[in-house]
Amino acid sequence: MGAKVENVRSPRQGVSVVTADTEARERVLEAADRLFYAKSAHAVGMDELRAEAGVSLKKLYQLFDGKDALVEEVLRRREEAITAATMQYVRRASTPEEQVLAVFDWMADSSGTTDFRGCAFINSYAELGPSSERVTAVVRHQKSGVRGAIAAMVAATGRPEWVADSIFLLFEGAMTNTAITVSSEPARQAQTAARFLLEKTAGSAPGA
Question: In 93-132, where does DSSP find H-type helix?
Fold first, then answer.
């Protein structure tokens, strides 16, 4: 009786499949980021997404189990990209106070165009948060991270914690208004208010 020959994939074939899946996943995430930000997740169907990404619908569902999973991953990637971009501005600042204000420079330079639609995290929470614990969790994580980063920079200036909370709220409010007005002016106005607050609290005890 002849030996049974099993259909075993070679290691090279396995690598090829993994590479193809990785490339397909990247195309899907890039397409989802563009479409969801421009149109909203609800407005984009999975068929439109798979066509934009150049993958089959079957492959799309093999890579992601649904739209919530896609939105979650898109937001995580966007958080990493925004953090990296913002920190470039912060690192260029020469004083702790200017580091705090640099986050508004990033916002001003990123907004003011018709394709700027404000904060993707706020948008996603407003759209999906009430029905998606996954989206809510990633949005809260991002907002906590922004607040924490601002708090750390404000603490380095010797100001009290409430100053960080105030500047965080200025930042979030300006982000929304830059989208609504299609202008970077709200970012500059918020920066002016934050600068005034830092000047008025110079020398304040951290616990004040």
Answer: 96-110, 120-128
Copy the structure tokens of residue 4.
């049974």
Which residue in 185, 208, 34 sits closest to 120, CA to CA? 34
Encoded amino acid at 178, one letter: T
List, as one string, the DSSP characters of 15-51. HHHHHHHHHHHHHHHHHHHHHHHHH-TTTS-HHHHHH
Nearest to 179 by CA among 110, 88, 85: 110
Q: Which amino acid is at 48?
A: E
- Cα separation, 24 vs 11, whole angstroms: 20
Identify the residue whose tokens are 């949005």: 139
How far is it, in rounded angstroms, from Cα 62 to Cα 56?
10
Spatial contact of 208 and 160, defined as CB atoms under 8 Å apart: yes
25 in Cβ contact with 63 (< 8 Å)? yes
Q: Report yes or no on whether pTM surpasses 0.85.
A: yes
Let me know the angle formed at the C-alpha of 63 by 61 and 64, rounded to the nearest 5 degrees. 65
In this structure, are residues 191 and 105 in contact, taking their beta carbons and an 8 Å threshold?
Answer: yes
157 Cβ partners below 8 Å, 6+ apart? 96, 97, 100, 198
- The 10s digit of each residue's pLDDT in 31-78 is 999 999 999 999 999 999 999 999 999 999 999 999 999 999 999 999
* Six-digit token string for 187: 């970012």
